[in-house]
Structures are given as structure tokens and as C-alpha cells.
Design a protein that fits this description.
Order of helices and strands: HHH
Number of helices: 3
Distance between the termini: 104 Å
Helix content: 55-70%
Structural class: mainly alpha
Oligomer: single chain
Radius of gyration: 35 Å
Length: 98
């Protein structure tokens, strides 16, 4: 387009592109982001999902994970207490035998 000094409309007609604004958009992308940016897929609507909606779900999962970890640690603590009590009981019984 610039080498042959053609307008947007002439360039669109030359390459059988239905509308000149498409060429203008491509030109803008080329000058703003470089030639590699034209290879990116840019069609369709953008996603309507907001990041705010995703955070509560993540927090819920984090809370569930934390609760599961707390429960596991409590069970481990109880197990160690019982094990310690059994060891002390065994030591007492061995001392009585001596």
C-alpha cells in the first residue's frame, strides 16, 4: 500500500478485501505491534467472564484445602498424643517389672 502509494480503498480492491476499514485496522496493528502481531487470531467477541467472578471460587477451593489440611493435622496430633501415652505406659510397666 505504501510502496505503490495506494489508498485504503484501492488496496482493499486490489487484494479483494470487502472493506477498507479492515485494511486500516491491519495497518494500525502493524505499526503499533509489528508484523508478528498480524499472525494473532483477533476474531470474535472477547470473553464476558470477569476476573472478579473467578476469585471467590478460588477462595472457596483454598478454604476447602485449608480445612482439609487442618483436619489432617488435628488427626496427626491426636495420633501422636495416643502414641506418646502408649509409650509412657509401656515404660512404666517395664519399670515395675524390674
Amino acid at each position: 500500500m505504501h510502496m505503490k502509494e495506494m489508498s485504503l480503498r484501492e488496496t482493499a480492491n486490489y487484494f479483494c478485501i470487502p472493506s477498507a476499514p479492515t485494511v486500516a485496522k491491519w495497518e494500525h496493528i502493524y505499526y503499533e505491534e509489528g508484523p508478528q502481531a498480524l499472525l494473532k487470531e483477533r476474531r470474535g467477541r472477547k470473553s464476558m467472564i470477569k476476573k472478579k467472578n473467578l476469585k471467590p471460587k478460588k477462595n472457596v477451593n483454598e478454604n476447602e484445602d485449608l480445612l482439609a489440611e487442618v483436619q489432617h493435622l488435628r488427626m496427626e496430633n491426636e495420633y501422636l498424643k495416643k502414641l506418646n501415652a502408649l509409650v509412657l505406659q509401656r515404660e512404666k510397666s517395664e519399670q515395675k517389672k524390674k
